Structure formats: structure tokens, C-alpha cells
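Hi Y.,

Following your request, here is the sequence exactly as I used it, all 258 residues.
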Amino acid sequence: MVLGVPLEDVAKFRAWSEEITSSVGHHVGDEARRQQVQDEFTAYIGELLDRWDGVVDSSVLSQIAAAEKAGELTRHEGVRFTAELLVAGNITTTHHISSSIALLGHAAGVFGQLQKDPSLIQPFIEESLRLESPIQGFYRLAMADAEVGGTAIPEGARVFVLYGSANQDEDAWADCPQVKLDRPNAAAHVAFGKGAHACIGSALARLEGRVVIEELVAQLQGFELIKPHEQIPYQASFVNHGPLSLPARLTFRAGASQ
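Below is the corresponding structure, written out as C-alpha cells. Let me know if you'd prefer a different format.
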């Protein structure tokens, strides 16, 4: 793995990853279990960092270990950084891809358009990111007194920036709720944040989403959701946004690999 987790531990690591990220943005569930998972994860990452053999390779953990050895990161910071990657590089991509597939299922005619003209897949990905942003919002700290929309924000206040709302602002997006594959400003959404806080993995996320949809369009003759869109269960979070399950009926093209 890019992160540097041994292959034999991938299943365990993924289970921890999903439990940790499932608690982001809501306050339900077993607090004791959440703490247990955090403690297990922290101990495991600490053990991997302790195993570092002094060789810095392409894995993230080897570079974190080297930074810790050089005094550039503390152990706590290294573990926290790794945990951040679980959200930034795992659950967000999973949600983006599943939300894109859900959008294909309920946006009338779009799947057929992509079959006829695969060059429209990239604009579709931008519309999916805009309408189904995998991160709906995040907290920021006001560094100075400010005013937004007539509301005073004092220095030091925590502000929740709601990307999902900005991406559906009717003043910015014509026919806002609709999937439009010819928007001149298609990539102007803030699904990846903006400015100094823009996601460094945005190009990779776009690539991953595009490749998945390209493969679906190439392999499938037909595609439909089994449940109405409003009945699809989504994660209970005001930060992470994505389906928990996506029952669908697939019809493969003749000769397609299944």
C-alpha cells in the first residue's frame, strides 16, 4: 500500500479506518468503542513507526518516521496525520465514487448520454462533485474580525464552512439541482475547498472517479437503482456525505468482463 501498511494487515486497517471516519460529523454510537478503536489504531501506527529501518521509500509511513527521527514531527502529530489520511484518501474517494454511481441512477438520461459520448464523463464528474460533495463542510478558525452575509464573526471564533451549500447556490449555478454536462464553470465548485485549504489530492480524486465511470459505461448495457433515490441510506454525518449501500440492477454488454 502507498501508506506502508503490511498487506496482511489491510483488512484490519480498513476496519479501523471505517470505524474512525464513521464518527466524524455526528455524535451517535458507542463512545467507549470509539475510544477503544482510537487506542488500537494509535498503538498499531506507533508500532509500525517503531519498526522503521532508516530507509525512506515511497511509503507515507516511512517518511513520517523519518520526519519524527529528524525532530520535524512528534509521535502524536505523526499518528494524527495518518488518521487524517484515512478521511482524505479513503472515505472521501469511496463516497465520491458511490455518489457518482447513485447520481447516474437517478439523473434521467445521463447514463445514456455518457454511453453515446464518453467525453462527457469528465464534466459529469465535476457535476457529481458539486451536487454530492463528499465533504459537505469543515471548521475554520477566524484569524481576524470579519463579516459574512451580514453576520459578524469575531476573531478566534470557530466557523463551519458549508461547501455543500455553496455548491448549490442558485446565484452561482444556473439550473442548480440539475446535472448539466455543458456548464462553462463546471470545475468552479468548492468540493475540494479553496485557496490555502484546497485539497492536494483533487487531481487524483478526479482521475479515480473518471476511471470508474469510464469502466461502468464501457462494461454496462443498462443500469438502474433498485430503490428510489430518496430511500438510499446515507451516512449520518454533517461532514462526510455518501451512500451506505447502493442496490442496483446491472445489465452487462455481451463479452464484458464481470
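The mean pLDDT is 90.

Thanks again,
Q.
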